[in-house]
Amino acid sequence: MKKIFTNLTFWVLLAITSGALLGHFFPSSGVAMQPLGKYFIEVVKVFISPIIFLTISLGISGMNDLKKVGRVGGKAIIYFEVVTTFALIIGIVVAHFIEPGRGVNTSAIEGGDISKFTQGAKEFSWLQFLKDNLTIQVLLFSIAFGIVLSKLNNKNKIIEPLKFISKYVFKGLHIVMLFAPIGAFGGMAYTIGKYGIATLLPLGKLMLTVYITMAVFIFVCLGLILRYYKISILKFLNYIKEELLIVLGTSSSEAALPSLMEKLEKMGCSKPVVGLVVPAGYSFNLDGTTIYLSMAVIFLAQVFNIDLTIHQMLTIIGILMITSKGAAGVTGSGFIVLASTLSAIQVIPIEGLALLLGVDRFMSEARAITNFIGNGVATVFLANQEKAFDRRRMEAAFSKETYEYDLEQAI
To answer: Is residue 193 part of a domain?
Structure first.
C-alpha cells in the first residue's frame, strides 16, 4: 500500500480523473484551475534550457571524435524528415478513406473567430521561428560551446563545475516533478470546464479518426522502428508512463521534456545523442502534429465537398512537409500552420478553421503524446545506429517496476 502512495503514476492518474470530474460537474471551478497547470509548465520550462545546455556541452566535451556530432545531427535530420513525411501520408490516406468531414454541419463557422490565426499565418517566417524558438537557440549555442570546450587543454576546470551544477539541476527537477499531479489536475480541469464534453459530439468522428490514426502510428510504425533493434514499444511506453500522463494532463510535451531526457540516459542512450536529438526533435520531429495537420486539411475539404485531385494532394503533402516543421515555439502554432497551408493551396476556404476551434484542445493531448513518444523513439533508434546504446542499462531500467519521484530521491 505504501508503494502505491509513493508512486507518481497513481497520483497523476488520480489528479487527471479528479480534474475531469471537477471540470464536468463544476465548469466555472474547473476553468479557475487553469493557473495550476499553466504555472507548473512554466516552472518546468525553466529547467529545459539549462538541461539542454549541460547535457550537450558535457556530452560533446567528452567525445574524442567530434565528427560524430555532425554525423548524429545529419542522421537525425534525415530520420525526422522520413518519419514525419510518412506520418503525413498516413494522415492523408486515413482521412481520405474514412471521410470524417462528410455531412458535418458548417453553422459553427460563423461563430468562430480565427482572425488571430490567419494574421499569424501572414506574419510567420522561418527567421521569426528561429528567433522565437529558444530551444533551437540553446541547442546551437550548446553545440558550439561543447566543441570549443573539447579543444581546451584545461577543460576539466570547467567540466567539473558543470557536472556539479548538472547534479543539482536534476535534483531540482525531481522536486518540481513532485508537483506534477497538481499541474495535471489544473490542466485537465480547465480543459473540461472551458470546452465541455458536449463540444466533442459534432466532430466526434474526426476526433476518433485522429486518435485511432495516432495509435496505429505509435504501435505499428514507431513499434517497428524499435523492433528493428529488438526493443519492445510496450516496455518503452511503460518505462515513460509517468511522463505520458503528465503530457496528457497538461496537454504540453514541454512539461515532461527534461524528465524524458534524463530517462533516456538512464535506459542506455549516450548523453550526446540525447542532448542533440531530443531538443532538435522537439522542433522538427512533430509526428502527432503532422498527422493532425494532414487530416485537418482533408477533413475541411470534405466538409466543403471539395474533391481534391492527385496533383492537389501532392501539393498539400509538399507544403505541409515544409510548414509543419514550424509548428513549435509559436503561440497557436497548429492553427497558424494550418492557416498558412490553406492560404497556400487556395482551394479550401480558410474560414473552415472555425469548425476546429472547439475540439482542438481535446486533440492537442493526442498530438503532444505522439510527438513526445516519437522523439523518445527517435533518440533510442539513433543511439543504436551510432552504437551509443547500452542494452544492459535498458534491461535494468525496464525491469524496475516503477521509477518514482519520491522525496528521498529528490533530496
So the answer is: yes
Establish if 249 belongs to a structural domain: yes
| Percentage, residues of the chain above pLDDT 90 | 26
Phi-psi region of 251 (alpha: psi -120 to 50; beta: other; left: phi over 0): left
Q: Which residues pair with 389 in a beta bridge?
A: 269
Contacts of 52 (CB under 8 A, 6+ apart): 135, 138, 139, 142, 261, 275, 279
Bridge partner list, 269: 389
Do the domain assignments include residue 410? no
**Cα 107 to the center of its chain, rounded Å:** 32
CA distance readout (Å), 373 to 169, 250, 325, 329, 394: 24, 16, 17, 19, 17
Question: Rounded distance, CA 207 to CA 293, Å?
Answer: 13
Secondary structure class of 389 (helix, strand, coil) = strand
What pLDDT sits at residue 328? Answer: 55
Q: Please give the single-letter amino acid code of residue 383.
A: A
Q: What is the pLDDT of residues 181-200, one digit of tens each?
A: 999 999 889 888 887 777 67
Q: Is the Cα dihedral 50, 327, 147, 378 positive or negative? A: positive
Is residue 184 situated within a structural domain?
A: yes
DSSP calls for 344-363 = HH-SS-GGGGGGGHHHHHHH
pLDDT tens profile 14-66: 998 999 999 989 999 999 999 998 898 889 888 888 888 888 888 887 666 67
Q: Taking each helix axis from N to C terminus, what angle separates 134-151 and 67-98, rounded to the nearest 10 degrees? A: 160
Cell representation of residue 9: 503514476
Q: Which domain holds residue 378?
A: 2-404
Check the CA dihedral 361-365-370-376 and report its sign: positive
Q: Are 271 and 59 in contact (CB under 8 A)?
A: yes
Domain count, the chain: 1
User: Roughly how many angstroms between the first and final C-alpha of the chain, as a whole number?
Assistant: 23
* Contact criterion met (CB below 8 Å) for 303 and 355: yes
* CATH classification at residue 153: 1.10.3860.10
